[in-house]
Specification:
Length: 530
């Protein structure tokens, strides 16, 4: 912030009408960069996952089930992979196309995802090393974020910004000030999965809030824009004078000897916010766009009304697509606390609303997860995740998989990450992960990658999952950061390689795998790059 010029520097972006018609997508304006930006979109689901239903159980055409090689809990009915991913490790892989059926590639990842298999990466064996319970930010690197209802050992760790916020304040992601650094959406729950230091290294880390009302999210993304992407305000000169005055006050304040370090940080944060406001007021669009009509206000609630749930998700997905296509933001998180799923009567096909609460109260998505030994509860949980796969994940991919430039689509130039709060039965081993897009060619897609050492020790099993050593989830965090163009110098802290804590707390190797090879924790996942 060495000059007024750098302070007022804006970013490209404008609005695009919703809903989207591919044939009417806006043409690129002259001067737009030939290299499209990369985007990071996170979709998070909650509670336990049904591991056997998440992963392929295909046999035939040279594939067999794990039951053909292993006994006991390792014979879990999922597909045995035999192709080595890298030398010297028991990591394996298979092309997703080999495992495709008319019903999809697994019990949860159904036929709606078949058209996108060449652009997907399914990962098994990502382990959270710190002992967590229900949490907000673990899948993005802040493990000390367990909910108030379920405190955990990892809460003693220091808070760190989640990787989406490291990206949001990186000049590698935003060479100039964006219209909106990040967008956070959810239904029912206002606490986001994201934690931020607002780009101030060493500053206080705070949990961000979600937008639960589509109108509020719309105003964050498109507030102040009119046709053609300009603000159209008759008071633009007045606004410019106001920003000039703020900047002049800032230059006086920062040299004041009485200004404490803490107050200086507050001033810097305020100036950053004003700078971003100026970017929204004066930015020149990369595309010529017409702002979408503002949606009606839909208040946040914890009710289970099917129409309310589905209407909000449709609006949110359209808004996410508009924000990406018009480059209003490149970082988005979506917390799926509400979804549809089967009702308690297995003979009734009608879908009902479900909500993931923190207290596991009866009948909610969370409560069903605690009842995992009940076949009917498992049936409902499977249906909830099938709905997320088809109605949120697959529909978002369909909206993004349209031409952008140079023969690529918006999806190709994005990294869309469907992750989960925990693994099986509230244990954070082998936490499911499904990626879409390659982040501009960084990731080699169309594959199922298994990082579990199936020939190693099975510590114990519960539900339908095994505690067998996989690979630190930290290496996924590094993969995502580097896929977005960041290098180690942009995210490593306190001289430690990688990102996120590797502490296993009080766990011991008689019950848990704790002897991970941390010499590679600063590297991307083996074999994942294109």
């Amino acid at each position: 912030m060495s000059s007024r010029r750098s302070f007022l520097k804006g970013a490209g972006g404008a609005a695009l009408a919703m809903p989207f018609l591919e044939s009417l997508a806006p043409r690129l304006a002259r001067g737009q960069t030939a290299t499209p930006p990369r985007r990071f979109i996170v979709i998070k689901t909650f509670s336990t996952q049904l591991i056997k239903e998440w992963y392929p159980a295909f046999k035939g055409n040279g594939y067999a089930l794990k039951d053909s090689k292993y006994s006991g809990s390792k014979a879990d009915g999922t597909t045995l992979l035999t192709q080595k991913l890298v030398s010297g490790k028991n990591y394996t892989w298979a092309p997703l196309a080999d495992l495709q059926t008319a019903d999809g590639i697994s019990g949860i990842l159904g036929p709606s995802l078949n058209p996108f298999l060449p652009k997907l990466t399914l990962i098994r064996g990502l382990d959270f090393l710190p002992p967590v319970n229900h949490n907000y930010g673990a899948l993005l690197g802040n493990f000390s974020s367990c909910t108030a209802a379920t405190p955990c050992d990892a809460d003693s760790l220091p808070d760190v910004p989640t990787i989406d916020q490291v990206m949001a304040y990186s000049p590698k992601v935003y060479p100039s000030t964006p219209g909106l650094r990040s967008l956070h959406l959810a239904q029912g729950v206002t606490d986001a999965m994201s934690y931020s230091d607002l780009g101030k290294a060493g500053g206080a880390v705070q949990q961000l809030k979600t937008r639960t009302n589509p109108l509020d999210a719309f105003n964050d993304v498109f507030g102040g824009f009119t046709a053609g992407g300009s603000s159209g305000s008759s008071g633009s000169d007045r606004d410019k004078l106001l920003v000039d005055r703020v900047y002049q006050d800032y230059t006086k304040l920062k040299t004041n000897s009485r200004l404490s370090a803490g107050d200086k940080q507050l001033v810097e944060q305020y100036i950053t916010l004003v700078s971003e406001l100026q970017a929204k007021m004066s930015v020149k669009p990369m595309m010529t766009c017409t702002p979408p009509a503002a949606p009606g206000s839909m208040a946040n609630n914890t009710a289970l009304n099917v129409s309310d749930i589905t209407s909000k998700w449709k609006l949110f997905l359209d808004l996410v697509t508009a924000a990406i296509m018009c480059d209003r933001t490149r970082i988005i998180t979506i917390g799926v606390h509400k979804a549809l799923g089967p009702g308690p009567d297995s003979s009734d096909p009608t879908l009902v609303g479900l909500y993931h609460s923190e207290d596991a109260s009866g009948g909610t998505w969370h409560g069903l997860a605690h009842d995992w030994s009940n076949p009917n509860s498992r049936r409902i949980l499977k249906g909830v995740n099938q709905w997320v796969a088809s109605e949120i994940f697959a529909k978002l991919l369909g909206k993004l998989d349209v031409p952008e430039m140079n023969g690529t689509t918006y999806l190709d130039n994005s990294l869309v990450y469907w992750g989960n709060e925990l693994g099986f039965n509230h244990i954070a081993y082998s936490v499911p992960c499904l990626l879409a897009g390659s982040a501009g060619g960084f990731i080699k897609t169309g594959r199922y990658l298994d990082y579990i050492d199936w020939d190693g020790k099975a510590y114990f099993s519960q539900e339908d999952g095994n505690v067998i050593k996989g690979i630190p989830h930290n290496q996924f965090l590094v993969t995502a950061l580097q896929a977005m163009g960041l290098g180690p110098g942009d995210y490593e802290r306190d001289g430690k390689p990688g990102y996120g804590s590797t502490s296993v707390g009080s766990r011991t190797n008689d019950t848990w795998p704790v002897d991970y090879d941390l010499s590679t924790v600063g590297q991307v996942l083996p074999g994942i790059k294109g």
